[in-house]
Amino acid sequence: MEVLLQGLIKNTDALSNKRNLEKLGIEKAYWESKGVDCKIVHEKLIDRVVADNISTFNECREFICKNSIPDDCINMFMSSIRNNPSELAAVCDKFDENFNFEAGTSINIFSNLVAYKQLKVDMFKPFSAFMKCSDILFVEVEK
Length: 143
What we know:
The protein has six helices and four strands; from the N terminus they run βαβαααααββ. With about 140 residues, the chain is an alpha+beta fold. A two-stranded parallel ribbon has the order 1-2. It has a two-stranded antiparallel ribbon with strand order 3-4. Helix 1 (about 20-35) links the parallel strand 1 (about 5-10) and strand 2. The longest helix has 16 residues, at about 20-35. It starts with a strand and ends in a 5-residue tail after the last strand.
């Protein structure tokens, strides 16, 4: 069963402005009309590490599409990190080198896959490219 949730995240200062509250109310009503549970949250309720990780991964949300990275390349990348005891950075550097990618391409592919929940990491730990690949969880995607 899939649960849909939309979080409207705002700075505490923005919540003291009447106009901002009106706009949030409209947005909340919109999401709820679509059957999506909607919560208004301020930054003091969000774990700083989680927020930083979300920001990091969302920066690469469109990387694969914008750079026309083919599916077979994505599959090879995922295979290269699956069951690999090495650090993510080392695997990504080697992958970039083997495919003549610009340095950092593979870590952006990784971040894109996390943003789209095809890969999972512990969001309560600060993200590090030096994490072990064995700490990455693979999500089976329905086709």
